[in-house]
Amino acid sequence: MSPAPAVPLAAAKPAPLTRVDDAGVTTLTLDDPSSRNSLSEEMLAALGETFRAIAADRSVRAVVLAATGPVFSSGHNLKQMTARRADADRGRAYFAQVMDACAAVMQQIVALPQPVIAAVQGTATAAGCQLVATCDLAVASAKAQFCTPGVHIGLFCSTPMVALSRNVTPKHAMEMLLLGEMVPADEAFRMGLINRVVPAGEELAAAQSLARTIASKSTLTVATGKKTFYAQREMALGDAYRYAAAVMVDNMLARDAEEGIAATIEKRPAHWEDR
């Protein structure tokens, strides 16, 4: 799966996104609580640029996506979008550019060789909920809530629906989309939107712990598995088995599979070469 091309937006100011690297785990933090960590022009541009850099960085083995403040992300920046209604085309070209940029970032996450784990400390709504659903794993605070509220403002959450409908059952997805109600963390867990619920304040540490566990594995194996997972689920059953079998044959011939199997037989720790 090739990374989706990111659509550049003209960032008017430095993006409120921070990056910390620690022993193979990169933590990215949305740090714009004044806009409720909206997916503004600046934030989308920064996320796109950062994910492109991470995809090529062999030192990064797993990624944690966190946020500051009471809101994980409120989704698109409606103030920026509303301001463009004054354009000659009533904002059509700008709206399309923003939607393309957001979709590209979501596809970058899926195509990234490294797993991405969301650490959700607060509310994730609309495209913010889409962002959580797009991540490979998600850990949430017991105080976190999730919502696709576009139906309340006459703007159906059609693009968040893409990620949401690929993570939860159709009826759960439609319930969220049609009612626009807040879903508490324990219900989101039951629906399959998130992996784990932890006490408030422990979500980042829990996500980083998962990331460190993943970082201890062969990066070749993890990247192969992630790519295969997303590719096969779009296929018919027979095609999926043929594709996965071919991947497994290639994987069996990789140096890390040879080492891992030998280590298991010999009852010793494996020494990964990531090839």
What does this structure look like?
This protein is of the alpha/beta class and 275 residues long. The chain has 2 domains: 199 residues, 2-enoyl-CoA Hydratase, Chain A, domain 1, CATH 3.90.226; 48 residues, Lyase 2-enoyl-coa Hydratase, Chain  A, domain 2. Helices cover 47% and strands 15% of the residues. The longest helix is centred in the middle third of the chain and has 20 residues. The two termini are 19 Å apart. The relative contact order is 0.12. The N terminus is likely disordered.
Broad shape: globular
**What is the mean pLDDT?**
94
Number of domains: 2
Which strand order spans the largest sheet, edge to edge or round the barrel?
1-2-3-5-7-10
Computed structural class: alpha/beta
Radius of gyration: 19 Å
Report low-confidence residues grouped into runs of 5 or more: 1-8
Number of helices in the DSSP assignment = 11
Could you give the count of β-strands?
10
Largest sheet: 6 strands, mixed
Strand content: 15-25%
CATH third-level topology of the largest domain: 2-enoyl-CoA Hydratase, Chain A, domain 1
From the coordinates shown, what is the CATH architecture of the largest domain? Alpha-Beta Complex
> Helices and strands, in N-to-C order?
EEHEEHHEEHEEHHEHEHHHH
User: Roughly what percent helix?
Assistant: 40-55%
Specify the CATH homologous superfamily of the largest domain. 2-enoyl-CoA Hydratase, Chain A, domain 1
* Termini gap: 19 Å
CATH top-level class of the largest domain: Alpha Beta
